[in-house]
């Protein structure tokens, strides 16, 4: 799921970037129940803004919905495994860094 949020440092994603999101027409699915979670995650797989979307959810500690291909539990686990990361946006926007946190799929 996508959105534009401004932190104290920068806008996480611009409206031009969010316009490319694969989930624009799938908003209900992205916040559906557990039984639709796998289908929602599939929407994210080939999305061109997946890293930025995931970074937004991790930095913003979003507790609902599928963001960047991960459900809330997966995002909590990722933050738990990497407590040293204080800026997910800076880490995930560089594609080679996806390997560092095991999101190279």
Q: Would you write up a description of this structure?
A:
- There is one protein chain.
- With 105 residues, the chain is an all-alpha fold.
- It has one domain.
- It is built from six helices and no strands.
- The radius of gyration is 13 Å and the shape is globular.
- Residues 2-11 have low confidence and may be disordered.
Number of domains: 1
- Global morphology: globular
Order of helices and strands: HHHHHH
Q: Identify the quaternary structure here.
A: single chain
Task: Estimate the strand proportion.
Answer: under 5%
Sketch the major β-sheet: none
- How many individual β-strands? 0
Distance between the termini: 18 Å
Q: Work out the helicity level.
A: 40-55%
Mean pLDDT: 81
Number of helices: 6
Give unreliable regions as ranges: 2-11
Task: Give a quick set of tags describing it.
single chain, 105 residues, mainly alpha, 0% strand, globular
SSE topology sketch:
Layout: H1 15-18, H2 27-30, H3 37-44, H4 50-60, H5 72-81, H6 88-92
Quick structural gist:
The chain has 105 residues and is an all-alpha fold. Helix content is 40%, strand content 0%. The chain is globular and about 35 Å long.
């Amino acid at each position: 799921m996508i959105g534009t949020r401004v932190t104290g440092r920068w806008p996480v994603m611009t409206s031009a970037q969010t316009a490319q999101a694969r989930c624009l027409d799938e908003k209900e699915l992205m916040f559906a129940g557990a039984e639709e979670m796998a289908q929602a995650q599939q929407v994210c797989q080939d999305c061109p803004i997946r890293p930025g979307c995931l970074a937004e959810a991790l930095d913003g500690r979003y507790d609902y919905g599928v963001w960047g291909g991960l459900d809330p539990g997966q995002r909590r686990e990722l933050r738990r495994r990497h407590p040293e990361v204080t800026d997910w946006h800076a880490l995930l926007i560089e594609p080679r860094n996806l390997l560092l946190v095991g999101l190279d799929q």
